[in-house]
Write a structure and sequence with these properties.
Structural class: alpha/beta
Low-confidence stretches: 1-17
CATH architecture of one domain: 3-Layer(aba) Sandwich
Oligomer: single chain
Shape: globular
Strand content: 15-25%
Number of helices: 24
Radius of gyration: 27 Å
Length: 758
């Protein structure tokens, strides 16, 4: 073994030299290695297969061990534990001809064993430090379990909550999504990708996946280059600029060409315009699916994908089985196979696998790091800060730690649903339910009663689809009226009712698009019955997306949106409900009043006949006749147990030139009775441009802590870069003229001031 590792000692030197020297060492090492490789071995490096532990697609890889021995596998995902990964790595190191190590990946989306809130919930914290910490802990745990490649962050902008994977991203906004992407990349990769506790990030899904037509997963996208460059592409680039080592293709088409065969996207934009020098991998069987898109048989589409600039084929094995034939037929060039092979080998080199292929296989570290008490404590803290208080009429919340509380609803006693979608490594059988978490926090201070209240969904088949992957929620076979009647007996014994309602975790996520976004009708019937008791009712809302809550907002006194908070959801909900933590989350995707309003988002363009801000119908204006034209809850919205007052904005100057900085200041006062955090949001509007511009765009935010009665001044420095956009010729420019700056607690409730760019 010493001799084998010694063959690759060049890699170690690279991490103790300058970046230029390191690149030179890496290039020399890989040149020498590739000179020894056959064409078949090079193609083998482009093959990414699944170990089958987590269900992330319909295809399962076969003959893995034999293929490793034959040099036909470059990477494996959905395999874990140091023992299993070491055993698999040993096959490559001891039994393949060139002893090239394997890279091991996993969908580490919002935590590993310790699960944090779903990404839409993480973004609602508006706390980049906490988001980075969550990714750092995820990397610590995953690498301790042998994994060195995370298929995260997902940075797709989505303005259609019907799309299930809106839960997996940061929401609708370009600027915020870019900052979240950077934080996650830094958390995963740290300062040294070759360290034993860092892992390579994989940005996904490139590109425009969140703009799928009708919110239907995998569907077509169609948009102008102007919108693409200004609104949808920036988060991908921000993640890559932060150092992400890899990027994943999306399933959809862009300008009529699916991403995995789109040379303009993968080569012209990604490689040439952005200068990306990392690894490009497809999503699950995306190469094979090019056939269903109508681009040809497996050999044709595999050649198209390689020629477009894709380096690694996930699961489908089209590269493995057809590229040699295409090379012999002149359909692909050896230079493109070499290019793809080099990027795969470089990723392994940067991870330090050539120096020590077993650096991630320390069973002792796994026992101490994974699921530690400190990690769970951080998960609880972050979960509580992700929750968004949507309504709190007459200060129903926080609850008193006395008396009896009835926790009623299909999400009250379902621990496996608490981690949320895309928590493939969660220990579902060890995750506390909401009721269990509340009891753990409150002890004997509060008497907690509980009841199912209603089935998750009236239709049992629909419920089976909505509770896959071990997220089953028990059904009561009795009539709805009988179930509710039983629940009301429990409610009548309580001082306050907590209604745990909404979606199951698998009602959002991949292939979980919904055409209706109401709380299921049978759950709403339960909620109406609970309200009719006259007891104070708090709706604890579980969801992976914005829902249409028009009725709930009108009738329920208090609504706390808890998304899916991860491993420590139950305890974190108790912390907020009973006032140990003051809610500070702010939504990052607009909540519509009904599905007909979609897409609805704050950074929309004006028309020649814009409607007013009241939301009321105006004839011959751009609005709906049958519904208020305002959102139910605007982007950036979230209440607190305290209240904050904003002063007028002060500018230190009224003009700015291309080299200057303008400072906008505002005083924030905590005028309520609780110490609390507030996210102060800065928006800018370009009033006159060569192209139409959004009515406002987020350009900065600060999360501050204020004790009750305290006042702080918040300063924002506005630079010319904050005013730039891609014009009609895709030049990145700031055009002289007048601008408005807005500062407030959300995108709607703002103060404003005007300035000029000279």
């Amino acid at each position: 073994m010493k001799k084998v590792v010694g063959t690759f000692l060049l890699a170690l030197i690279a991490w103790h030299t300058s970046p230029a020297q390191s690149n030179q060492k890496m290039d020399t090492f890989i040149d020498q290695l590739m000179a020894k490789m056959t064409v078949e071995e090079k193609i083998g490096q482009l093959n990414l297969v699944t170990g089958g532990e987590a269900t992330t697609g319909t295809t399962v890889s076969t003959g893995v061990e034999a293929k490793i021995k034959n040099g036909q596998i470059g990477g494996i995902f959905s395999m874990s534990t140091p023992a299993k990964i070491r055993k698999t790595q040993e096959i490559a190191i001891k039994q393949s001809r060139l002893k090239i190590p394997i890279i091991f990946g996993m969908d580490v989306i919002h935590g590993y064993r310790t699960v944090f809130p779903i990404p839409l919930g993480l973004a609602a914290t508006w706390d980049m430090n906490l988001i980075q910490q969550s990714a750092r802990i995820a990397a610590e745990e995953a690498t301790a379990d042998g994994i060195n490649w995370a298929f995260s962050p997902m940075v797709d902008i989505s303005r259609d909550p019907r799309w299930g994977r809106i839960s997996e991203g940061a929401g609708e906004d370009t600027y915020l999504s870019s900052r979240v992407a950077e934080a996650i990349v830094h958390g995963f990769q740290g300062d040294n990708l070759a360290a034993h506790n860092t892992m390579m990030a994989c940005v996904k899904h490139f590109a425009l996946y969140g703009a799928a037509e009708g919110g239907r997963d995998y569907n077509s996208t169609d948009m102008s280059l102007h919108r693409m460059y200004n609104e949808y592409l920036p988060p991908y680039k921000a993640a890559l600029d932060a150092g992400a080592g890899s990027i994943m293709t999306s399933f959809n088409d862009i300008n009529g060409v699916p991403a995995s065969a789109n040379k303009w996207l993968m080569t012209d934009v990604l490689r040439k315009q952005w200068g990306f020098k990392g690894l490009v991998v497809t999503d699950y069987t995306a190469v094979n699916e090019l056939t269903a898109h109508g681009l040809g048989d497996l050999q044709q589409v595999s050649a198209l994908s390689l020629n477009a600039g894709v380096d690694m084929d996930m699961v489908g094995e089209g590269f493995l089985t057809t590229l040699k034939k295409s090379l012999d037929a002149g359909k692909v060039k050896i230079a493109d196979i070499d290019r793809a092979c080099r990027f795969v080998l470089e990723a392994k080199y940067k991870l330090g696998l050539f120096d020590d292929p077993y650096r991630y296989c320390d069973e002792k570290r796994a026992k101490t790091v994974i699921g530690s008490a400190a990690n769970h404590a951080k998960a609880r803290e972050i979960a509580a800060k992700s929750f968004v208080l949507l309504k709190n009429e007459n200060q129903v919340l926080p609850l008193k730690k006395t008396g009896t509380v009835a926790v009623i609803g299909p999400l009250a006693n379902s621990g496996p649903n608490m981690p949320g979608t895309w928590s493939v490594s969660a220990e579902l059988d060890k995750t506390a339910s909401l009721v269990e978490g509340m009891k753990a926090v409150l002890g004997n201070k509060v008497n907690i009663l509980t009841h199912l209240g209603s089935n998750l969904l009236e239709d049992s088949i629909y419920q089976n689809h909505a509770t896959m992957f071990g997220r089953t929620i028990a059904r009561d076979s009795r009539k709805e009226e009988e179930i509710i009647a039983d629940a009301l007996k429990v409610a009548q014994q309580s001082d306050v009712v907590v209604a745990a309602l909404g979606e199951a975790s698998e009602m959002s996520g991949e292939s979980s698009s919904r055409s209706e976004l109401d709380i299921p009708k049978n759950q709403q019937n339960l909620l109406k019955a609970l309200l009719a008791t006259g007891k104070p009712v708090v709706l604890v809302l579980f969801t992976g997306r914005p829902l249409t809550l028009t009725w709930e907002d009108a009738h329920v006194p208090a609504i706390l949106n808890v998304w899916f908070g991860g491993t420590e959801t139950g305890k974190a909900v108790a912390d907020v409900l009973f006032g140990d933590v003051v809610p500070s989350g702010k939504i990052t995707a607009t909540f519509p009043r009904n599905v007909g309003q979609i897409p609805i988002y704050y950074a929309h363009k004006n028309t020649g006949r814009p409607y007013g801000n009241s939301g009321d119908f105006e004839k011959f204006k751009s609005n709906y006749l049958d519904v208020s034209n305002s959102p139910l809850y605007p982007f950036g919205y979230g209440l607190s147990y305290t209240s904050f007052t904003y002063s007028d904005i002060r500018l230190d100057r009224n003009t700015i030139d291309d080299k200057g900085t303008l400072q906008a200041s505002i005083d924030i006062s905590n005028t309520g009775n609780y110490d609390a955090e507030e996210t102060v949001q800065l928006y800018i509007q370009d009033l006159v441009g060569s192209v139409t511009r959004p009515v406002k765009e987020l350009k900065g935010f600060q999360k501050i802590f204020l004790k009750k009665g305290e006042q702080k001044t918040v300063n924002f420095n506005i630079k010319v870069d904050d005013l730039k956009f891609f014009d009609n010729n895709l030049n990145y420019v700031a055009e002289p003229g007048n601008f408005k700056v807005y500062i407030g607690s959300n995108s709607r409730d703002v103060k404003e001031k005007e300035f000029e760019l000279l």
